[in-house]
Amino acid sequence: MRLLTTGVLAIGLVIGGCNRGDTATKSPDGTGATPTGTAGAADTAKAPEAAPASAQDAKSRASAGWREVTIPAGTTLPIVLDTGVGSDISRIESPVNAHLARAIIVSGQTVLADGSSLSGVVTDAKRSGKVKGLAHVALRFDTLTPRGDDERYRIHTAAVGRTAPATKKKDALEIGAPAAGGAIVGAIVGGKKGAAIGAAAGGGGGTAVVLSTRGKEVRLARGSRLTLRLTQPLTVKVRA
Predict the structure, then answer these.
(1) What tens digit of pLDDT does each residue of 159-199 get?
(2) What is this structure's pTM?
(3) For residues 197 and 130, what is the distance between their CA atoms, to the nearest angstrom?
């Protein structure tokens, strides 16, 4: 009897141990999956994304292939007008456009290609007077855009202008000065045009023509070539 009891207890211990082993290997939900612990979370966590590059870094990368070159003051810029101007057809502040006739080179490197565009305004437009005053037109350029580039540069240049030729000798001949005497010619050429006209009033019908006719006008047609001069240095970006 004692032996039977001992055997039953031994069998019970073995079965109990097996049940505890099964329970230890099963997950709480009974599926048998290994519970996810700290190590599992570390394995499956994503690496943090790289921080976006700063604006300064982006700017540095964008300008990596460029460098600045300064064109010194006094440099001449040969240009070709794309807009015609004239003492009798232009108005002050009217826009004017032009382009470089040739490339600008500094220290052996082309810094401005031919065809680079310039823009400016008319600074003076004065018609010729009927009795005195010569026609005059002038312009100044203040903006430059290199060919193939959208960047615009502020430039400082001396104004360029043209004045119509004087017609005093021609006026003297029209008045009839040869018949009136050399004194009248001298008065006209010397600047006393009004007095000369009065003295020659009875000498010929040309006097009225001179009084009612303006002198020559001055025009710079499209395609005219001019030379600008930088009054201040100009720094531009060029490819390295």
Answers:
(1) 999 999 876 555 444 445 444 445 544 554 455 555 444 54
(2) 0.57
(3) 12
How large is the average pLDDT for residues 126-139?
85
Q: Which of 104, 97, 96, 111 is nearest to 78 (CA)?
A: 104
Which residues constitute the domain of residue 154? 66-165+216-239
Burial group, residue 210, by CB count within 10 angstroms (0-12, 13-18, 19+): buried
- Both tokens of residue 162? 């043209």
Indicate if 158 and 126 belong to the same structural domain.
yes
The CATH number of residue 117's host domain is 2.40.128.260
